[in-house]
Prior knowledge:
There is one protein chain. With 343 residues, the chain is an alpha+beta fold. It has 2 domains: 3-171, Endonuclease I-creI (Roll), CATH 3.10.28; 207-281, no CATH class. The protein is 46% helix and 10% strand. It has helices at 3-17, 24-34, 43-51, 94-108, 128-138, 159-168, 173-221, 230-241, 247-254, 258-272, 282-285, and strands at 39-40, 56-60, 69-73, 109-112, 119-124, 144-148, 151-156. The strands form 2 sheets. Strands 4-5-7-6 form a 4-stranded antiparallel sheet. Strand 6 and strand 7 (151-156) form a beta hairpin. Helix 2 (24-34) runs parallel beside helix 4. The longest helix has 49 residues, at 173-221. The protein is rod-shaped.
Amino acid sequence: MGQADRDLVQAIRAELAAIAPARPCDRAAESAGLGNALATREAAVARLAVRLGRVTDAGRLLGERRRTKHVRVVDAPADGQAAPGGFDWASAPDHCRLAWLRGRFLARGSLSLASSRSHLEFVVDPEEAPILAARLAEIELPASWRIRRGRGVVTWKSAASVGLFLRRIGAGASLLELEARQVTRAVRGEINRVINAESANLQRAVAAAARQLDAIARLEADGRLAEQPYVVRLVAEARRETPEATFAELAELLGLHRSSVQRALERVERLALHDDEGVGRRGGERGSGRAGPPGRPGGRRSRAGGSSPAGGEGRGSAEPRAAGRVVVRADRRPPVGAVIMEP
């Protein structure tokens, strides 16, 4: 947690400790929330204990931080309310419950804003943890609890739950500052996510456009581009004129579907991977000049009845039909399930 976050947490706790309850019952409830085993280095919390009429003992605790001054509450609240079940939660009104929770947070609570997340927890005795969690759930602030190293820990990890709790126990201006920082961090994170996504998309688009321009140049150099279909040549020309355009923009410019533009450019890239003369040429790929297999002159079937284009009885020739009878040639096997009609 950075120094700015630490200062904000201290401001929130100081603002809560500066609240002076007007009702005597609220003062008693907050005093009960502080408990009888409070030892704090916070001046605001120590002043609160003195205002509530608690007896304190200021001293120095020996240890690593020898100059740190601690303040201890050495007495107990009236009527034994410091025990986990001592505060009469069931019959107390809402304002007394919130005052008790405020004192419990100042005595046993901690707030962390590290890593752009809010984390609030109470560290209490093991037997008090389920009681505190049940009381929080009763006022529609459910929290999780567990035992950690022999201590009960009641935790919130949701920024919404933390903000609602702090607002209900009296935090004001400092809470607004916390929410403003959370909004700023959320907006900054969203902007960074969008920028990263757009940068990645732009890099992929630039790499694809470079590949396509290189493929177009290679096909144009060996003459294969001029022999491609009209749509492919049209899309290639548009790509050269607007290398930064997307598929959707090219499609809108040419009045085509996006899928047509994508297929045309994929065809250009695929053809550029093959350097042999035949691939991608109309005459070498599907042209009528290609030598066909034996018995199929010209490589195409004749759609007219009679003979093949070469004048012979090729395999692609149509057989004349007799009236009322289906003639099946000996070299052709009828399909399965075919019915042969006789006159």
